[in-house]
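Hi there,

I know you've been waiting on this one. I reran it after we fixed the sequence typo, so this is the corrected version. Both the input and the resulting structure follow.
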Amino acid sequence: MINDKGLNTNMQQKTNAIEIDRCSAIISTPDRVSKLPTIIIVHGSGGIGSCEWEWHDLALKNNFNAVIVDHFTKKGVRDWWWHEPEFNPSFYDMANDVVNVIDHMYTNEALFEFIDFDKLAVVGFSAGGTASILLSTMVNEIKVFGSVNPCIWPYLPEFDKVKNKDSLHLYCGDLDDWCSYDKQKLFSERTGTHLHTYKNCHHGFTRPRTDPIGRKLPDTVTFRNCDFPIPYRYNMSNMIKFEDSWEKGVTVEYNAEASKQVQEHFINLVKSL
């Protein structure tokens, strides 16, 4: 059963909420005694939803800790729209939020004795997947990086600085017309990172919905047909200058079978740490 805070009350986890600087996080553990691997979950432009809570519960069921980072609330953001970049946290902001959460937990290690800091993993979705890619260029503390349907535009200089290519795994639907599977594939080829392709899957294929039928979002902006790479600066507001490259209209659709395959693959990576 899910309570009004989104927590699975059938599980015996212990949960902490922390607030630091301009982000917050929910930290759950199935066992406060043992040091366990930890999965850090990074939401996308829609904020924390069914996907993030499903991964939270999945981590606990596999005897891992779960950390959901909230990039929006303390920044006064409700949701993220590409045509309003001045209100958005940047991909860098989101990556730095994760770094700050890790630093907070490490600095207060006595409060988080259940975390094995040698076994940290991160998984991000859409914009959160992009943050996961950036984290793979920034930190050594995280051992496994999962990036689900990441936004590869704007193409950031840091994308070519992935430190450990074997630790970064992209999980992408071949019908993703929002963040563009073509761009994700080109990124993988350019950087030599792992690409796991899921046939007949759209953007958001890991996000459970009460209505699993695909939804058309006719006003959503995409850069799917732009040249690659697009050398934007990190500031998302710079995208406004390229309105002639915009297209509108994307599809989002949940695929339970493919979502389970992503989960199983990533969980096995964490178990191997």
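Quick highlight: The radius of gyration is 18 Å.

Best,
R. S.
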